[in-house]
Amino acid sequence: MTSPRQLHDSLVFESWLASLPRWLQTAAADLIANNRPCTEIEVKALADLAFAEVTQPPVPYRTVPVGHFTSDPAGPTIRIRGIESPVGINALSPGAKLDFGAAGLVVVYGQNGSGKSGYARLLKCATGAKAASPPLGNVFAPAPTSQSVTIRIEREGADVSSLAWDPSSGPVKALLHAHVFDTEAARAYVASKSTAAYEPRRLRFISALVDVGAAVKAELVARKAQFPQVRPAIPPELAATVLGKFLTSPPPTTSASALQERCARTPKHEEYKQSLERALREPDPARRLTDAKLLDEALHKLENGVAALAEQVSDAAFARILEARLD
Asked: Using CA atoms, how far apart are residues 257 and 189, in angstroms rounded to an integer?
């Protein structure tokens, strides 16, 4: 019976679940409804829901049933009704049959070598019990034979089905919650060190929910890698600025209006832009200096040329020409 303290803790836990993002609430509801991890298709659907929740809220979603964690878990009632048709196990006859019936208590007795220990080993292996040892083979058989047995299981007090089981395949999943306790199990618990492996129900549920969240994150990261990069290249000298950091890795919830507000030019930016434009319109000082030097050299050559020409047309030059003709 649920105590007031357990009821309070369960209500707090369910209230916390109701505060999670809608896609995560849907994942929690699916874990409860399906009683298994999410499939790849379900993970993709949750990724779609997570993306839609950010880009186009509100979106339809599922919630955890109210009171689910306040009540005791009610799993299916399973009873082992019998073991029959053993093959290759001890000296048990292939037609042997051990019927447990529907009573709450069954006593199995017999002489030494009648097969009691063989059936006990079968039960421990089928249920995954502590200190389980594999069933022994039939040493009297002319050749080794593969082992098998049929286990009859009753579900919910009515449905009885037969399950063919190979001991080498490991415990039967439906019987993992059954407890088989014998002398060997007692020695294992008392004489050897055991690691506690109990995980509370809610903690076990959170672990499963964390696994789903990791799978959805991996799906979203894979989708993100397929998107083309359309953000502008940030100059290295501006990468450390506030705007540079924002454009390099904007928050996932950034809206178009927030982006425009961040990238809007302030009066200070406009003044700086105009000063740059004025500087760009002015000639390059280095180029102007080079042009001035070339002009100076050209003027110096022109001056020398004019001086030479003036010398050639001077009065003295004409006098020399006249004297040369008279001679």
From this structure: 65
CB 121 within 8 A of CB 172: no
Q: Which of 92, 86, 93, 108 is nearest to 167 (CA)?
A: 86
Burial of 92 (0-12, 13-18, 19+ CB in 10 A): buried
Relative to beta strand 97-99, strand 78-87 is antiparallel
Minimal CA–CA distance to 215: which of 64, 57, 45? Answer: 45
190-229 pLDDT tens trace: 777 766 566 677 888 899 999 999 999 999 999 988 877 6
Q: Decide: pTM greater than 0.85.
A: no
Q: What integer is the mean pLDDT of 322-326?
A: 73
Residues with Cβ within 8 Å of residue 247, at least 6 apart in sequence: 231, 232, 234, 263
Residue 61 or residue 308, greater confidence: 61
Task: In whole angstroms, give the CA distance from residue 180 to residue 302.
Answer: 119
What tokens were used for 75?
């799993």
**H-helix or E-strand spanning residue 212:** helix 201-226
Closest among 79, 34, 55 to 174, alpha carbons compared: 79
Strands annotated E in the chain: 78-87, 97-99, 148-155, 159-165
Q: Chain-centre distance of CA 102, in angstroms?
A: 47
In sequence order, what are the residues at sequence separation of 6 or more whose Cβ sits closer than 8 angstroms to the Cβ of residue 131? 124, 184, 185, 187, 188
Cα–Cα distance for residue pair 236/239, rounded to 1 Å: 5
Query: How many Cα atoms occupy the beta-carbon half-sphere of 153 within 13 Å?
Result: 21
Residue 51: how many CB atoms within 10 A of its CB? Answer: 17
Distance CA 97, CA 75 (A): 28
3-class secondary structure, 41: helix
Q: What percent of the chain has pLDDT over 70?
A: 92
